[in-house]
């Protein structure tokens, strides 16, 4: 069976390295991964292994955003992890390299590596180059399009202007170009020790990314020889490093969901409260989109992630003794790394942070008894009180934002979009982008039991648990209720009398399940709470 796929007589004596390629033409994030996977194959072969490339799925968050198709996005993380585990387990690969490029690819790949616990390396496909507006020459990206939709609805942009932004925003291969979920997770995984140094901060179409893939193939063989496995690398301290780097970059709220899931696969105890504990001592240093002004390519051009990690290490904020896929520790990898140029302002010094503590806030209160997650940069303010305007799904909320029913002082409530209620826990970039585009970013808050794209910004709270479909208090909110979000006290509350609160909970009745067959139904049946990472293999037995 192996001779016709390219094995020679000598190859049967070599360790077999599986190369999981997440190549697909459904999204620019992954359209170039076929060649990068071949580069990883060549690196493994040159190092004395015999590589076999195999494929798995991906879906495009950007294309499915705002549609029922987005319900499959988080589900795809589980499918990717399951499929890589299945192929590698069935074929008996000695080591594995995974090459991913879009949001759910990355945690799915690392979850599979942790489950298999065979020597393995994750390779990030790289960030996209920015687009340039043909008239203003300003940089633009995917979030520019979503916010332009809101500007169009507010009559600040005509049809031609909207089309110009849409046509230039995505110029070629690579993942969305700000510190959105893809780049956030790539950086977190590098800090975790599962990628080679600066794999997270290379441009998709660059010689550096090609070399990274070749080196990853070689590293997998070296890890096999050294008997270093993913769970040797993915320790509790390594996850603390990943959280620290995510905070310092101003990363996506999705990192909370994915790091919890990855830790579960690795058998490491991690909770949402760890983000709060670490966040008290870690500042936000990178002025990156969506809240900042720079894209990922700007971080790449000044030296990538490693100088930032060196800053954090020297300040005692990273565990330098954690082993990585290089076979060396974090401290050894960073030895000799040069600091950023003095004339750059992409990454601030520790003495002058953008925010002195974390932007990722885990909130509790009578609206989120088991937690919720907000991304508060400080630019939105630290507290918001407003009147609820309630929607049972994302589509109805977006229509109300675009047609002007959502006004200053509102707290937009989008419910029944959680892991079970969706099912699938959709991202809410369409409504958050529309709010910003309409010019309401400072005057409107949004809360949901769904989640957000890394490109979302504003006073927004997601991952509210328990979710509405499971009887969570978000399901009892009525139009006009007063809601307070406090990012200093880390609280989210509905301001109604206690007896009314109890009476509403008692009167609540579950809705009929939306799906009864297929992958969405299986997901809804198996999935845990977002506060536990929304994994599907936790409560099986």
For the structure shown, list the relevant keywords:
541 residues, alpha/beta, Glucose Oxidase, domain 1, eight-stranded mixed β-sheet, four-stranded parallel β-sheet, 37% helix
What do you see in this structure?
This protein is of the alpha/beta class. It has 3 domains: about 5-130 and about 170-335, no CATH class; about 130-170, no CATH class; about 360-530, Glucose Oxidase, domain 1 (3-Layer(bba) Sandwich), CATH 3.50.30. The chain has 19 helices and 14 strands. It has helices spanning about 35-45, 60-65, 70-90, 105-115, 140-155, 160-170, 180-190, 205-225, 230-235, 235-250, 255-265, 270-280, 295-300, 305-315, 330-335, 395-400, 430-435, 500-505, 520-525, and strands at about 15-20, 50-55, 95-100, 120-125, 130, 140, 360-365, 370-375, 385-390, 410-415, 445-450, 460, 480-485, 490-495. The strands form 3 sheets. The chain has an 8-stranded mixed sheet. Strands 2-1-3-4 form a 4-stranded parallel sheet, sandwiched between helices. It has a two-stranded antiparallel ribbon with strand order 5-6. α3 runs parallel beside α4 (about 105-115) and α7 (about 180-190) runs antiparallel to α10. The chain is globular, with a radius of gyration of 23 Å.
Query: In total, how many beta strands?
Result: 14
Radius of gyration: 23 Å
Quaternary state of this entry equals single chain
Strand adjacency order, main sheet: 7-8-12-11-10-9-13-14
Dominant shape: globular
Structural class, by secondary structure, is alpha/beta
Uncertain segments are none
DSSP summary: helix tally: 19
Largest sheet data: 8 strands, mixed
Count of distinct structural domains: 3
């Amino acid at each position: 069976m192996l001779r016709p796929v390219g094995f020679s007589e000598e190859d049967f004596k070599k360790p077999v390295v599986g190369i999981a390629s997440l190549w697909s033409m459904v999204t620019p994030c992954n359209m170039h991964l076929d060649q990068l996977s071949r580069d990883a194959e060549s690196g493994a072969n040159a190092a004395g292994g015999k590589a076999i490339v195999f494929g798995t799925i991906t879906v495009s968050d950007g294309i499915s955003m705002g549609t029922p198709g987005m319900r499959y996005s988080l589900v795809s993380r589980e499918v990717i992890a399951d499929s890589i585990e299945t192929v590698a387990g069935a074929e008996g690969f000695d080591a594995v390299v995974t090459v991913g490029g879009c949001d759910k690819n990355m945690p799915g790949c690392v979850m599979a590596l942790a489950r298999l616990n065979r020597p393995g390396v994750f390779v990030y496909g790289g960030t996209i180059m920015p687009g340039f507006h043909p008239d203003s020459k300003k940089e633009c990206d995917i979030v520019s399009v979503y916010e332009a939709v809101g500007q169009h609805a507010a009559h600040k942009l005509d049809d031609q202007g909207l089309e110009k932004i849409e046509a230039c925003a995505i110029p070629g291969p690579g993942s969305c170009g700000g510190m959105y979920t893809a780049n956030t997770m790539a950086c977190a995984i590098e800090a975790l020790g599962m990628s080679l140094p600066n794999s997270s901060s290379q441009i998709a179409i660059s010689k550096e990314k090609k070399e990274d893939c070749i080196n990853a193939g070689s590293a997998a063989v070296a890890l096999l020889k050294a008997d270093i496995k993913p769970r040797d690398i993915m320790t509790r301290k390594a996850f603390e490093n990943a959280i620290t780097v995510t905070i310092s970059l101003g990363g996506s709220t999705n990192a909370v969901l994915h790091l919890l899931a990855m830790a579960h696969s690795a058998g490491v105890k991690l909770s949402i409260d760890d983000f709060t504990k670490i966040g008290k001592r870690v500042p936000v240093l990178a002025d990156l989109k969506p809240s900042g002004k720079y894209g990922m390519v700007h971080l790449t051009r000044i030296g990538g992630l490693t100088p930032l990690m060196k800053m954090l290490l020297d300040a005692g904020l990273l565990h330098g003794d954690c082993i990585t896929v290089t076979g060396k520790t974090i401290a050894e990898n960073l030895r000799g790394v040069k600091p950023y140029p003095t004339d750059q302002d992409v990454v601030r010094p520790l003495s002058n942070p953008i925010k002195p503590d974390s932007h990722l806030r885990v909130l509790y209160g009578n609206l989120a008894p088991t937690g919720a997650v907000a991304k508060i940069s400080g630019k939105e303010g630290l507290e918001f009180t407003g009147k609820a305007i309630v929607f049972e799904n994302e589509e109805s909320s977006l229509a109300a934002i675009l047609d002007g029913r959502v006004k200053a002082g509102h707290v937009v409530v989008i419910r029944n979009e959680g892991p079970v209620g969706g099912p699938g826990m959709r991202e809410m970039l369409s409504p958050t982008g529309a709010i910003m585009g309409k010019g309401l970013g400072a005057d409107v808050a949004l809360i949901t039991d769904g989640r957000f794209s890394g490109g979302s910004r504003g006073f927004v709270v997601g991952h509210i648990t328990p979710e509405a479909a499971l009887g969570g208090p978000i399901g009892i909110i009525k139009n006009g209720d007063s809601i307070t979000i406090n990012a200093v006290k880390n609280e989210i509350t509905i301001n109604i009398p206690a007896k009314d609160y109890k009476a509403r909970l008692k009167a609540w009745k579950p809705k009929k399940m939306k799906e009864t067959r297929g992958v969405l139904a299986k997901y809804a049946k198996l999935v845990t709470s977002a506060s536990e990472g929304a994994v599907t293999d936790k409560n099986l037995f």
